[in-house]
């Protein structure tokens, strides 16, 4: 009786190609855990990792004699990787062709609303007093701190805070009816 656990991978592959079930069982027990760990590391699901390993090893048996295997570990690792990718692709929701025009239209609508709001906001900011508008621009668009703005404009930090508060209050009043759009966009 042959001790399969002491045979090399190359010997086991030759024996599988000759339909030796015991050689397949030896490979199964030799590589199952390694393949499982690799699959689980990417999938983070015990059941999916087990399914992947089962598919890989079943595929090895089903394709016996049809594939030249130079390195069994490399062959199994590659097959495992592709099986994991296949499993992951099944998890990604697919947008149906029928739903695509609606999705494109929704994005176009959101883009148009966002453009309208940006344009309206710029118009509102242009109506602010010059120093208030400048402080708001430095703060929000240039990312300057209140201290930096105060130094740049030679005003107190308290004055900077008052200008920012004034600008934000004006925007809140003008855009109170658009918060539902903003919350849907962001």
Automatic annotation (TrEMBL):
UniProt xrefs under InterPro entries: RNA_pol_sigma-70-like, RNA_pol_sigma-70_dom, RNA_pol_sigma70_r2, RNA_pol_sigma70_r4_t2, RNA_pol_sigma_r2, RNA_pol_sigma_r3/r4-like, Tscrpt_reg_LuxR_C, WH-like_DNA-bd_sf
Stretches assigned to the HTH luxR-type domain: 125-183
Signal peptide positions on this chain: none
One GO molecular-function entry: sigma factor activity
Keyword annotations: Sigma factor, Transcription, Transcription regulation
GO biological processes: DNA-templated transcription initiation
NCBIfam families: sigma70-ECF (TIGR02937)
Stated family: Belongs to the sigma-70 factor family. ECF subfamily.
Protein name: RNA polymerase sigma-70 factor (ECF subfamily)
Upper classification of the organism: Bacteria, Pseudomonadati, Bacteroidota, Chitinophagia, Chitinophagales
């Amino acid at each position: 009786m042959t001790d399969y656990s002491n045979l090399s991978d190359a010997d086991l592959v030759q024996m599988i190609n000759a339909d030796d079930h015991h050689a397949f069982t030896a490979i199964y027990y030799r590589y199952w855990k390694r393949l499982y760990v690799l699959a689980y590391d990417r999938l983070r699901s015990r059941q999916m990792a087990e399914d992947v390993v089962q598919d890989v090893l079943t595929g090895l048996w089903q394709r016996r004699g049809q594939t030249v295997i130079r390195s069994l570990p490399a062959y199994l690792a590659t097959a495992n990787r592709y099986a994991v990718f296949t499993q992951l692709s099944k998890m990604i929701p697919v947008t149906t062709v029928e739903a695509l025009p609606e999705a494109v239209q929704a994005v176009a609508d959101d883009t148009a609303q966002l453009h309208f709001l940006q344009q309206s906001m710029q118009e509102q900011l242009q109506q602010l007093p010059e120093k208030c508008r400048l402080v708001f621009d430095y703060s929000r668009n240039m990312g300057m701190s209140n201290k930096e703005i105060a130094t740049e404009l030679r005003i107190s930090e308290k004055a900077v805070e008052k200008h920012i508060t004034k600008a934000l209050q004006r925007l809140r009043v003008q855009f109170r009816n658009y918060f539902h759009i903003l919350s849907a966009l962001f």
